[in-house]
Specification:
The protein is built from 13 helices and nine strands. By secondary structure, the protein is of the alpha+beta class. The protein folds into two domains: 189 residues, Jelly Rolls (Sandwich); 107 residues, Arc Repressor Mutant, subunit A (Orthogonal Bundle). Pfam families: Cupin_6 (PF12852), HTH_18 (PF12833).
Length: 329
């Protein structure tokens, strides 16, 4: 999954306080144009607070912890669990987008600051197929309030330093740090999953399935068969098919077909390659065969996707599960 990060707000607050997330449609065009999915994160560098998706139970957050909202759900950060807030207005977002980030917001009036947060966003493509996003829960909290010697703890220390000193290039540093922070949060989440957990992340934890997934991801244009994947993964065809389907949620050849279309959609959106070369890059012998398969799986032809026309209707429902990938290669 390709990420683009932006560290956007530096919030100093005094009890009682509450802030509401902007709607993705209002923030994406201003800071991360062209992306179709927004992940929000909030790093609490001092004090304590609560985080909650609107309408859901609040989660306590301590200094040294980060909360990541993975599904673009509207959410509130506040000093107590039940406080409400309105999202920032369009003019505030315009001013923030035109300023050096992180944009400071001061909710301290005449008392002592009770909490400080660094808030930002990560953008990625959710369509047509993003198995990681589909596997994540709506909210992930990570960190160590007693002091963390790992990467996440180092990120928080560096973020505090960059925000305070505002040195040249700090905006770029914070952006890259936020992308690495997200990777570390994901690692911690995967490590915390129970042994009986199923899904794409469970597949990554399985040494045999992780090998099969890596082969598909690294060599999507290869003429993979179930037998070839099984041999490389040190499993029999039957065991690979059964375990892959049970943990990942679809047969290996179905996953391969979807992954090829995900790569194709990214290349089409980038606009730097023609359809024929994209077809070859993902293992199709002809542009016509690729175009038929793309429209069958995605719902629109490659030319429409390149123009920004999106639809999820029927995606994946007719993907070929025959060995070697999509029909008519």
């Amino acid at each position: 999954m390709r990420l683009t990060g932006a560290t956007f707000f530096d919030i100093a607050a005094q009890d009682p306080w509450a802030v509401c997330s902007p709607a993705p449609a209002s923030i994406l065009p201003r800071i991360l144009p062209g992306a179709d999915h927004l992940i929000s994160y909030h790093v609490l560098t001092a004090g304590r607070c609560f985080a909650r998706i609107v309408g859901k139970e609040a989660i306590p957050v301590e200094a040294g912890e980060v909360v990541v909202f993975t599904k673009s759900d509207p959410h509130i950060m506040s000093s107590t669990p039940d406080l409400r807030a309105d999202p920032p207005t369009a003019d505030v977002l315009d001013i923030a987008a035109a300023s050096q980030t992180p944009f400071p917001i001061n909710y301290v009036k005449d008392g002592t600051m009770s909490a400080r947060l660094v808030c930002g966003y990560l953008a990625c493509d959710a369509l047509p197929f993003n198995p990681l996003l589909e596997a994540l829960p709506p909210v992930i909290k990570a960190g160590d309030v007693k002091g963390d010697g790992g990467w996440l703890g180092q990120f928080i220390k560096l973020a505090v330093s960059e925000v305070a000193e505002k040195r040249a290039g700090s905006e770029t540093v914070l952006t890259k740090l936020s992308e690495l922070m997200f990777v570390d949060v994901l690692r911690r989440y995967v490590e915390s999953l129970p042994p009986q957990h199923t899904g794409w992340l469970a597949g990554l934890r399985d040494p045999h399935l992780s090998k099969a997934l890596a082969l598909i991801h690294d060599r999507p244009a290869h003429s993979w068969t179930l037998e070839a994947l099984a041999k490389e993964s040190a499993l029999s065809r039957t065991v690979l098919a059964e375990r892959f389907t049970r943990l990942v949620g679809m047969p290996p050849m179905h996953y391969l077909a979807k992954w090829r279309m995900q790569i194709a959609s990214e290349l089409l959106s980038a606009g730097n390659s023609n359809v024929a070369s994209i077809a070859a890059d993902i293992g199709y012998e002809s542009e016509a065969a690729f175009s038929r398969a793309f429209k069958k799986m995605i719902g629109v032809p490659p030319s429409a996707w390149r123009l920004g026309i999106r639809t999820a209707s029927g995606f994946g429902s007719e993907a070929s599960e025959t060995e070697g990938g999509p029909e008519g290669r």
